[in-house]
Design goal:
It comes from Aromatoleum toluolicum. This is DUF1631 family protein. Pfam families: DUF1631. InterPro entries: DUF1631 (IPR012434). By secondary structure, this protein is mainly alpha-helical. Helices cover 65% and strands 6% of the residues. The chain has 24 helices and seven strands. It has a seven-stranded mixed sheet. Helix 4 runs parallel beside helix 6. It is globular.
Length: 701
């Protein structure tokens, strides 16, 4: 490996280290108030007198001394670059060995536990990173033994900085425990960014996570979880056995066979619920005569599955479309659970794998599922196949899992090709986009002023939001193309005026007739505007449905008091319009919405990004999902590309014909004002419901 090749890799390592350390120090600068709250809460709830005293002491010391910690941490991190051979706990050089005092030993033991917890939390990111570090060592970009990204080395710097707050044993241990709780959440994100940067630099890209993954799963954690679930099941069965007492049990599975016959009947003719609701057919089975005499284990299984579906159907985070798929699998799930006593404890069970796959695919939709989406159609097809053919043979689920994996792999490869082509197209016009953004600053200000001139105080909030977002983009686009005085711009402003008039209460028959005659033209013009800015069909339908309701209400307001009353209801403070610059272009057949922050707004003001939000944006990696909300309509997009300088992010979703290219600062502003939200991946739906059901039943008297 030549020095010329090693040099760029060395720069990559230095850049990753700089970002990780800077983000860590920023986090510590902001952590003080939260730690004070946590210490207060610990003191209020602890029953241990020593811990309460430590919490009280820490609560007093933190506000005064915390600001010194971040500075000390920066100094410690800089010093470790020089002291590259400095090691973690228990590995010090012999010349530094000495006897520890009792207090020091207490701190060391407590911190070893905290470090183990933080290390475990980071393991899913540090494992592939270790392999990449070995690659870099072989190519002389890093030195053997370099602890740049070592968790224990970072933690030793944190521990050393915390003595700026207190040196008393009790408060210091509590402080580091509280910090450990936060680091277990934050540090994996720092390592994710390092891994992603190395993937982008083509350093062992084969270790990249698939977009099908939800959250990292540790084998030891799975084993411990299975043991806990099995233990809870044993307790529930034992309790049910005591309930039944000496009652004679049915012979040779008679009750079970009767129950399965009931299941087959329900499976062939599932109970239909009203739209938006889902009937728990397993409850019907449990409450039937066939379930009255089942064995204790089967009775417990019935109770768990009943509770499981109750939890899923009432979960507000699960979309109605996914609930509809789940509802069709009720009898199948019950059969699988009845036939396998360890169904609930075995996450690798073929049926569990298939059920968890619903959650994996559902991530792409959020709370709104498009029933025409190929992914949904495939899931629906497989659910029907499993529901109609399952008779206890696990091969049915294994076949469905294999078919779904093949489908997802094919879609992933196709999406990757499209995303790469789209990224190349965006990259090719990146300089053009920068120049266009500068020209857009004036056009956007002019568009904002045009919208502000036509808005009236009594305008419905839904119409105001539409004009300040979607229609502002239309006006801005037309100003850029034909100027402020051009006929297209004037036509767009006239549409805004007509739109406001159409939702104003009509008192006279002549006004109602005029509205009825003008509506087709108005709706046509609005749809033309939607086409110009590339709005998704679901977005325009939602607005047009709302508009229809408002216009009907306006036509029915015949009494003079109606308008006055509406005026009072709608009186509200006027909010400032969006400050983000938006433009649209078409690349490889995909409508790309380019969003940036005007230079004049990038440094200060109400719409400037927060440092914490910018850090969250910097920690995004390819494959992360973000919900973008405009005028009440939410689109879920996946981060598919980041340019080398990390100054431009590209979001897309194969379920949508639109994509979003956005600068980090603009995304941070959207996080701040609530029009964007980073999606936090959760455990699969069935896994959450199984744990909730068992816990609920296990805690019953």
């Amino acid at each position: 490996m030549t020095e010329k090749v090693a040099a760029p890799l060395g720069e990559l390592v230095a850049g990753c280290r700089s970002q990780m350390e800077n983000d860590l120090c920023e986090l510590f600068e902001e952590l003080g108030p939260l730690l004070t709250q946590m210490a207060t809460a610990r003191g209020n709830t602890s029953r241990d007198r020593a811990e309460s005293r430590a919490a009280a002491s820490l609560k007093l010391a933190l506000p005064t001394h915390w600001e010194k910690v971040a500075a000390s941490l920066r100094a410690n991190l800089a010093a470790r670059a020089v002291e590259a051979t400095k090691s973690g706990y228990g590995l010090a050089d012999q010349e530094n060995l000495r006897l520890l005092s009792a207090a020091e030993e207490s701190v060391q033991l407590a911190m070893r536990e905290v470090l183990d917890r933080v290390t475990l939390a980071c393991r899913d990111e540090t494992k592939p990173l270790e392999r990449r570090i070995n690659y870099l060592v072989l190519r002389r970009a890093m030195q053997p033994g370099d602890k740049t990204f070592n968790v224990s080395a970072l933690w030793s710097c944190i521990e050393a900085a915390c003595v700026e707050v207190t040196t008393d044993t009790g408060p210091l241990i509590l402080l580091l425990q509280l910090i450990g709780d936060q680091m277990a959440i934050e540090m994996p994100q720092l390592y994710r960014v390092v891994n992603e940067a190395m993937i982008e630099a083509d350093i062992l890209p084969s270790l990249k996570r698939s977009y099908r993954d939800t959250i990292p799963v540790d084998a030891h954690e799975v084993a411990e979880e299975s043991t806990r679930v099995a233990s809870a099941l044993d307790r529930l069965v034992e309790a049910r056995t005591k309930e039944t007492g000496a009652r004679e049990m049915p012979k040779s599975g008679t009750a079970s066979q009767e129950l399965f016959n009931s299941l087959k009947t329900l499976q062939a003719a599932p109970v239909a619920g009203t739209p938006g609701t889902h009937t728990n057919v397993v409850r019907m089975v449990r409450d039937s005569g066939a379930a009255r005499d089942v064995k204790p284990l089967e009775a417990v299984t019935l109770d768990i599955v009943v509770k499981l579906f109750d939890l899923i159907f009432s979960d507000p985070n699960v979309s109605d479309g996914i609930k509809a798929l789940v509802a069709r699998l009720q009898t199948t799930v019950l059969q699988a659970a009845m036939l396998n006593q360890r169904f609930f404890a075995d996450r690798g069970h073929p049926a569990r794998l298939f059920l968890d796959s619903l959650s994996v695919v559902a991530v792409r939709w959020g709370k709104v599922v498009n029933a025409e989406d190929p992914f949904y159609l495939k899931l629906s097809e497989l659910v029907d196949k499993v529901q109609s053919t399952y008779d206890g043979d696990m091969a049915v689920f294994e076949s469905a899992n294999a078919e779904l994996d093949a489908f997802l792999s094919e879609c992933e490869e196709r999406d990757e090709l499209q995303n790469r082509a789209l990224a190349d197209a965006v990259l090719a016009r990146e300089e053009e986009m920068r120049l266009r953004r500068e020209a857009q600053a004036r056009a956007q200000k002019l568009a904002d002023a045009c919208i502000a001139r036509v808005l009236v105080p009594e305008a419905p909030l839904e119409i105001e939001e539409f004009l300040r977002s979607y229609w502002r983009d239309v006006v801005q686009s037309r100003i850029s193309q034909s100027g402020e005085e051009g006929a297209p711009t004037a036509a767009a402003i006239q549409v805004a005026t007509d739109l406001l008039w159409s939702v104003t209460p009509k008192q006279r028959a002549g006004e109602q007739q005029r509205q009825a005659a003008s509506l087709p033209t108005l709706l046509s013009e609005i749809n033309v505007g939607f086409d110009e800015i590339g709005s998704a069909p679901t977005e325009r339908k939602a607005f047009l449905d709302t508009l229809l309701d408002l216009q009907l209400a306006a036509m029915r307001a015949k009494k003079p008091g109606a308008a006055k009353a509406a005026k009072v209801v709608k009186a509200r403070p006027r909010v400032a319009g969006p400050t983000l610059q938006v433009s649209h272009a078409t690349d490889i057949g995909v409508r790309v919405q380019d969003i940036s922050l005007p230079v004049s707004d990038s440094l200060d003001g109400e719409n400037a990004p927060d440092r914490a939000d910018l850090r969250r944006v910097r920690q995004l990696v390819r494959g992360d999902w973000v919900d973008f909300t405009t005028a009440g309509q939410t689109r879920r997009e996946r981060l598919t590309w980041i340019n080398r300088s990390r100054t431009l992010f590209l979001f897309s979703n194969s379920a949508s014909p639109c994509a979003i290219s956005i600068t980090p600062e603009a995304l941070a502003v959207r996080l701040k004002n609530g029009t964007a939200q980073i999606v936090k991946l959760d455990r699969p739906i069935f896994e959450r419901a199984i744990h909730g059901a068992i816990k609920s039943l296990d805690q019953r008297p």
